[in-house]
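User: structure tokens for this one?
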Amino acid sequence: MSTYEAAGVDIEAGERAVELMKDKVARSRRPEVVDDASGFAGLFDASALLRYKRPLLATSTDGVGTKVMIAQRYGKHDTIGIDLVGMVLDDLVVCGAEPLFMTDYIACGKVVPERVAEIVGGVAEGCRLAGAALVGGETAEHPGAMGPDEYDLAGAGTGVVEADKMLGPNRVAAGDVVLGLASSGIHSNGYSLVRHVLREADLSLDAVLPDLGRPLGEELLEPTRIYALDCLELARQVEVHAYAHITGGGIEANLSRSLPAHLDAVLDRSSWTPPAIFGVLAGHGRIAQPDMDKTFNLGVGMAAVLPAGAADTAIRLLAERGLDAWVLGEVVPGEGRARYR
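Assistant:
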């Protein structure tokens, strides 16, 4: 006799996973969240938007890429959800939007309730760090399509910004400075190259390399820094013209997206020292600097463009919030691209 369970889908395991994650998800709750007794949808009280004159909704969706394969190999699943939030909600804050809520989607070969709860717990923690609510999600079991220990996750987020306070290239002016906001490490981009280096150099995730001082697997799984609340507070206290979330493509490509066509951002490579993990990867993988530049964030997870006179105040405010920042470059007449001097 054929049954759903015989086909590899365990409905009871899915229900247990939901029970295990409930308390963790509750930690991300915002006052605007409304309970839906059916559980089919996440509800958010839109009357909260009445305080805006012209509210613009912002939305973003993303995944974590092949960093999940490192988490699976190393057996650590409690922070990969934070990476997902960083990839989704920190994209919203680039235009000045406050993240409101998020939903997630996990596909796996086999539902292991404890593992799913760890993954979702990370998403909930990331939402809490971003000031957003995790209002719903879905866990799908795909036996045959994925191995029992394989999974992938994606998410979508929604935020809001007042129309006349939206940040972007149109606000950037010649003479502005670019601040680099420190990353926590690799974040969630470039892991296909990371895995290539691991294979070619025969590096173990358990290896404790001298430059790192902890197992390589722990370094590679350091969760993405969540910038949302820091960036929102900075924009409230000083004049910020634009942000750039440094993800796939590196600093130059992402910062260029936040510049108008007639201005360049000239960056000073000597203004900071990238975290040690980038040197480890470059050395073991014999990766040339141009490839490092276009693949990794190199220690700059977010960039802020603001008037030169606001730089010192901005750096101090961010330091008070535990975030290192420095003058990375300046805005000059040009062709709409970021480049090193």
